[in-house]
Design a protein that fits this description.
- This protein is of the alpha/beta class and about 450 residues long.
- A hairpin with a 6-residue loop joins strand 17 and strand 18.
- Helix 16 runs parallel beside helix 17.
Length: about 450
């Protein structure tokens, strides 16, 4: 085997370096995928020398079978080196905005297999053509932020707000939501947004002279408001869904109905646990040592204001690629992303550290545990089962699907319900695309 195995982006799988994150318990695999997990666990180690020949035995036949109609996808945050593995096999790795467009902009791809979280695969499915099928390697791969903004939580709030404000309410749904929430946004004339275009979408919404409900990330909403120069005192944050779910009434909101009536933007009370660990003291600690600090806007406002640069995963990766030898970057985002950036930076003579990597504080930073539920056995198994025509129905992603991240139980809409959802959800996504490309 060569000293390194290159991938299209230039990332390499170093020999002798373990590929996978902590292995999942065998009972976390669907019955159809357990044989692949058993084979994987029986390998002598997790290094490329062992894993890649095993993966080749399943991935290469699937690629030969499907030809150019097969498309593999992964998100930047993927752990277990899935980013490098998907790229090695010619797949695409991107942020949530670019991933959502993959089916619509590649109509020749008929079989799309995504190693990421469920809401990302569902966004691809919402925009997909009728003859394209979207599959996820692990349907239990979810998002803690999205789990705190399920439709049974959000609908009671939106129903109350619509009852009070009628057509004056416009919903903006962050990409990290299910299709059911994106459909709510579309039904109010609203739009989806990502961390890279939230300022464009919120600015567009303000020009509609509507009251905005921003779901689900309160920190991205607040940071976007700050970026646009909005009065932060005119923001209202709804009750914490991890405590209250959707069981509350508008008069129980801090400040009551008077605060809601004055609010320009109302924030759903959810957040991402990976990004809420950051604070301004961390930023200043690194800056005092001549490091440039970059941070993701899902972080709280204080560290975002203190950082040297703020942006989406694509922005963070682009900043790394633009850095010069000798530069020192600290990145505040998901841990797997930072570890990938550190390896890439080392090849460029750029030092990279995680924002929380401070003596006496967290070491290494948090990775997205739910996204890491996609691993080599899931990738190998899905591609082999698809080739054989035996892929599990649970892994087939249709718009409107709701999957329990613990049990794997799926709630699937009727065809009529799904058609209605697609109409509203696609409108909210297409509105985002129009705003973004115009901006």
């Amino acid at each position: 085997m060569s000293t390194t195995t290159p991938t299209p982006s230039g990332l390499t799988l170093e020999p002798g370096v373990p590929i996978c994150q902590t292995d999942l318990p065998l009972d976390w695999y669907q019955d159809e995928l357990k044989p692949y997990a058993e084979e994987y666990l029986a390998l002598p180690d997790r290094t490329p020398e062992s894993v890649l020949p095993w993966l080749d035995g399943y991935v290469r036949p699937a690629q030969e079978h499907f030809g150019d109609s097969l498309l593999l996808l992964a998100h930047y945050y993927m752990g277990g080196e899935i980013v490098q593995l998907v790229e090695r096999y010619g797949g695409a790795v991107a942020d949530s905005y670019a991933l959502a467009l993959q089916a619509a902009r590649n109509p020749e791809k008929k079989v799309i297999v995504e190693s990421a979280v469920h809401f990302m695969a569902e966004s691809v499915a919402i925009l997909a053509h009728d003859d394209q099928d979207v599959w996820i390697t692990n349907p239990k791969a979810g998002c803690t932020m999205e789990m705190l903004a399920k439709d049974h939580m959000v609908l009671p709030a939106t129903d109350q707000l619509i009852e009070r404000y009628g057509d004056d309410l416009l919903v903006i749904a962050y990409m990290n939501t299910s299709g059911r929430i994106k459909s709510i946004a579309g039904s109010t004339g609203g739009a989806v947004c990502t961390s890279s275009n939230a300022h464009l979408v919120v600015d567009w919404a303000r020009k509609q002279n509507k009251k905005i409900l921003f779901v689900p990330d309160q920190h991205l909403g607040r940071n976007t408001a700050s970026r646009l120069g909005m009065d932060l005192d005119a923001l209202v944050t709804l009750p914490d869904p991890s405590v209250h779910g959707g069981n509350w009434t508008l008069d129980q909101v801090d400040g009551g109905l008077a605060a809601l009536d004055k609010a320009e933007m109302i924030l759903w009370g959810s957040s991402c646990g990976v990004h809420t660990i950051f604070d301004a003291d961390m930023v200043r600690w690194w800056q005092a040592r001549d490091w440039r600090v970059l941070i993701h806007p899902e972080s709280p406002l204080e560290p975002v204001l203190a950082a040297d640069g703020v942006g989406s995963t694509k922005y963070l990766w682009d900043q790394l690629l633009a850095a010069k030898p000798g530069d020192k970057l600290v990145i505040g985002t998901e841990g797997h992303f930072v570890r990938n950036a550190r390896r890439e930076g080392a090849k460029r003579g750029v030092e990279v550290r995680h924002l929380a990597e401070i003596p006496g504080r967290l070491s290494g930073g948090c990775g997205c545990a739910t996204m890491s539920r996609n691993d080599p056995p899931h990738l190998a198994g899905m591609l082999d089962l698809l080739r054989r025509g035996e892929a599990p129905s649970l892994n087939h992603v249709l718009a409107g699907d709701a999957v329990d991240e613990r049990t794997g139980r799926r709630d699937r809409l009727s065809e009529a319900e799904r058609a209605e959802l697609i109409g509203h959800a696609r409108a909210s996504l297409e509105r985002m695309i129009e705003i973004t490309e115009a901006g």
